[in-house]
Amino acid sequence: MLKYKLSRVFFSSIVTILLVLFAVIYFYSVPLINAKVYETERNSSRMVLNNVVDLANKMKLSLAAYQREALDGHKRNMKSVIDLAEVYVAGSLAESQLNQLTPQQAYTNLYEGLRSFTYGNGSYIWIADQKSTILSHPDPHFYGMDASNLRDSNGELVFPTVILKARSEGAGFYQYPWRRLGESKDVEKISYVKYFPEWDFFIGTGVYIDDVKQGTESRRAEVITDLRQSIEDIVIAETGYLFIFDEQGNMLVHPNDNIEATNALLLKNPMTGQSILQELIDVADTGNELIYQWDRPTEPSNYIYEKLSLVRYIKGLGWYICSSVYVDELQSSGKLLSQRIMLIGLLALFVAIILALLFSNWVTYPITQLAAVAKKVSRGDLTLTSGIKRQDEFGVLGIAFDQMVTQLRDNITNLDLTIASRTEALVKSNQQLQLSMLESKRVQQQLMQAQRMNAVGQLAGGLAHDFNNILTIILGNLVAAERRFSENDILLKKLEPAIRASRRGSDITNRLLAFSRRQPLQPCRINIADLIDGTVELIKDSLPSTVVIDTYFSSRLLQANVDPSQLENCLINLMLNAKDAMPEGGEIGINLSCIDIESGTNFDEPVVPGKYVLIDVIDRGCGFTVDAMHMAFEPFYTTKSSGQGSGLGLSMVFGFIKQSRGFIHLSNRTNGGAKITLLLPLLAYKKLPKREDKDDNSTNDSNFTDKLMLLVEDDFDVRAVVREQLISFGFNVIEATDSDEAEQLITAIPNLFGMLSDISMPGSKTGFELADGLLRQAPASKVILMSGYVFENDKRLNNVESIVLLRKPFSASELRCALDNAVKESTNTIDKDA
To answer: Quick one: CA torsion of 796, 800, 806, 812, rounded to 10 degrees?
Structure first.
């Protein structure tokens, strides 16, 4: 058959190549296949374990939701109990009044009646007053106790902390350690406490956390049963399985009945002699597997078979879920596959040798023709074909060659198309990257602008403080001179412009304080629509007849917690600016709506997600220039001609909005004009009480003759001016230059009528702390605190509500008014304590 030498050489070459190829494929691929199959089996074991862990986590979440629902049920019960107690207290006091009992007898009967009321698992009701005295409690040990210094097992105050929070935050839930009735050990307890101002005491009730957790134990058992049913039919490889144990070593789920429901901590690893469960715990969630030797079910106590375990920990349940499988079972599939590959390879080799023998006899004539065509194709001419039309192997070779050339041509075409497509995608990606860089640059510029405004605000606040001290000296001396030389008309003509200029300077510093977010605010719940109506009504008569104000409210029930007078000033400033932007007249639009913002960066800084009141003030003027858009909020910046504006209007608006936790945005309308958008945090709607008319013209003609007043001020000139004003009212004045000197005088002089003090001064204490010390020593003292800019009241101090604040600069009449108000506040505080 092999009569041609070329055929013999070709046949022997093919056989040699096939043998070498078979050897290379076998020794290169079979070990790799074994390793890959082994790894696949291991990954399958991991996948099964991960699925069971996911199922356990879902059950854990269900258990946590059940526990939260149980806790919410207890909270609702506690609220109902407090409501019931409120009804009982009201009824008991009413009955005592009908029986003509004294208040002391009525409250004694009330406290005794509530002591015997218990419910649930030892839950009860207690009553305490604001001084932490326990007025009613079922435990005789606590009944009538002064609990102001009562501490829990952690050394923390219990009743004073809870009462302080309930008084300041209202009714709520509070958690702290407390012991059960008849026991001495503290356990965690959650209580609902509510303050009743009509009776001036707190009523509370609670439930122990352990009682809430006990209700979820049955649910936990159901979770274990469901999980056992889910994994009992799972088999890994041939005999591998899953099992579950807890942190104490208790075997919760195991296919072996002899091990399940036992503590398996004593089971040892034959290789190390250590607890097998402890070693499993050590590798939990590390991604590593524990390899150890164990016996087979068919060969008990013969610990020679290698096993592999992967462990996952379920946080919250305290469970460890483990997969366990024999290593040789993981390898068995790979070995079987390798054997089949070898058998198929030998058969293929045998068939290939036979085909090579047949094929070699026909390798004569067509080779030259194929070589010639192949040479032309190799030079780039892909339009040629072999032209072989034979019904033999060379015919097949010719067809295959032609198909190869065609496929090569198609591949080159596809490659060109792929390159073009990738190039287009790369161009689009580059464009998106440039857009992203532009957006990042815009956000960075916005952040830099916010930082710059904050720095300018701090500078403005400090400048206003120092300038107010100077104005206090100037204004005080000018007013004193005006009063002393009231009959000198020539001098008065010089003094009156100076006084007006000083007051104008004070107004400018107040605007700077607004910009620096240090102006005094008196925020309260207000209806924004009502305030806008009132502001429009106030300003419309002062606008030209060519300017019309149009309002649109999406709802009249939108409320916010802001200072109404400052918001009114803010709207007036914006409407006056809108009027100035329309010298020929036009329409000013004020739109009010509610908006729910998830994220936003189109304002002066990124907006905190939430619900807001949105106020738009729109004009039909020329809009903002590029420079005005960037510098509008800066103090003293104005686009108006010289002498027509101070440049503090928008900066005051900006400071007020930021001090009210709001946001602001400037924009130009597409059809002409400017729009200023304000965002203020929205409050849930509540019906506001009707405002009662008060006599604002009432005065207090207090007599201060020979009263002793302490003046605390570190600036010599300010102190001199204020001392002269106090003396003119009839006071005897003693002075202190810092808080340390003032504190010594307060301690040494018991009969002080009052104190007029700066808030910020040298020494170890602020004006608020000095006031607190004076009022603790002499509650009837009158306290006035003055400052160039306003501090937030320190809510930790006592008697803050009886302190009067006076802003610098001030005149003698303003100081006299503050003294009268201090007398009123002191009288109200004494009446309230009585």
So the answer is: -150
What's the token pair of residue 180?
Answer: 């059960």
Q: What pLDDT is stored for residue 693 in this prediction?
A: 43
Average pLDDT estimate for 402-406: 77
Q: Which of 433, 466, 498 is the last residue of a domain?
A: 498
What gap in Å lies between CA 394 and CA 178, rounded to an integer? 98
Choose the weakest-confidence range: 106-115, 255-264, 525-534.
Answer: 255-264
CA distances from 658 to 180, 512, 597, 765 (A): 49, 14, 17, 29
Same domain as 73, residue 142: yes
State the CATH number of the domain containing residue 275. Answer: 3.30.450.20
Does one domain contain both 669 and 816?
A: no
CA-to-CA distance for 179 and 184, rounded, in angstroms? 6
- Yes or no: say if 249 and 265 are a contact pair by the CB < 8 Å rule: yes
Structural domain span for residue 408: 367-498
Give residue-wise pLDDT tens across range 100-126: 888 888 888 888 888 888 887 778 899
In CATH, what number is assigned to the domain containing residue 532?
A: 3.30.565.10
Can you tell me the mean pLDDT for 691-708?
Answer: 62
Is the domain of 77 the same as that of 192?
yes
Domain end residue (candidates: 321, 353, 385): 353
Q: Which of 43, 54, 58 is nearest to 312 (CA)?
A: 54
pLDDT of 368-378, one tens digit each?
Answer: 667 667 777 77
381 and 474 both lie in a single domain: yes
Angle between helical axes of 812-833 and 393-484 (0-180°, round to 10): 100
**What is the number of structural domains in the chain?**
4
d(CA 692, CA 690): 6
The pTM is what? 0.34
